[in-house]
Amino acid sequence: MASTWVVGDIHGCAVELRQLLNEIHLQPDDMLLSVGDLFHRGPDPVGVLRTLQDLGEQFDMVNGNHEMVLSQRLAGRSATCLEDLCGDREALMDESVLPVADELLAFIAERDYLQRRPLAGPAWIGHPATDWLMVHGCVMPGRPAEELAPHQLVRKGRCKNLPGRPLWFQRWQGPEFVVFGHAQSAAGPHVDAQGRAWSYGLDSGCVYGNYLTALRIEDLVVIRIPAAS
């Protein structure tokens, strides 16, 4: 069976991304997917871009909050300075990106904010979910994910109609399995009372000195690459 790997927030950490690819050793039918936030804050956005470009059709992604803000700012025009390339909350990209700014913008242009794919593999035998969703920030219990707008999908959503306003993944029990990034505090699996996984947070803070994490959907195998010193 082909492997589907999903990587958490990369944030310009090209060294760790290449180490991850060496570990997972993609075969011709395998895929690497990303939950977004590829370039801002880290040391080598160009290295991330080139590494992902080299994967060709074996790579796909959803945009994160940084890609969303960047795309909105530069809709219909080119980037000419680092300020143009700021992401959410004015997060910067390394200045090395300037010579390839338009190429980077083209790479994220018209990307989805949500993807739905069928579940297959040993982890899902007997599990009630049949599909899985990839999103940067959140989906909302009781509401079809496709109804949410991009600005909702890239944030850390709360269930405002419930006591205590719990975070969405604290109440999510399907019908889909969800893989997401954005929040280090949500890293890891989130399970129901029967121990069945319903969501998995992949932002493990590589750019802050922690780990770059990838999850294989078919069997829920996890690989963590320590941040380079």
Topology:
Blueprint: E1 4-7, H1 14-24, E2 31-34, H2 45-54, E3 59-61, H3 65-73, H4 101-108, E4 114-118, E5 131-135, H5 150-153, E6 177-180, E7 188-191, E8 197-201, E9 211-216, E10 222-226
Parallel strand pairs: 1-2, 2-3, 5-6, 6-8
Antiparallel strand pairs: 1-9, 4-5, 7-8, 9-10
Helix pairs in contact: 1-2
Question: If you had to describe this structure to a student in words, what would you say it looks like?
Answer:
It is globular, with a radius of gyration of 17 Å. The protein starts with a strand and ends with a strand. Helix 1 runs parallel beside helix 2. It is α/β, with parallel strands linked by helices. The protein contains 5 helices and 10 strands. The chain has helices at residues 14-24, 45-54, 65-73, 101-108, 150-153; strands at residues 4-7, 31-34, 59-61, 114-118, 131-135, 177-180, 188-191, 197-201, 211-216, 222-226. The chain is 18% helix and 20% strand. Strands 3-2-1-9-10 form a 5-stranded mixed beta sheet, covered by helices on one side.
How many helical stretches?
Answer: 5
End-to-end Cα distance:
36 Å
Mean pLDDT metric? 96
- Series of secondary-structure elements, N-terminal to C-terminal: EHEHEHHEEHEEEEE
Residues in β-strands, percent: 15-25%
- The structure class reads alpha/beta
DSSP, total strands? 10
Q: Enumerate the spans where pLDDT stays under 50 for 5 or more consecutive residues.
A: none
Helix content: 10-25%
Radius of gyration from CA coordinates: 17 Å
Shape: globular
Major β-sheet profile: 5 strands, mixed
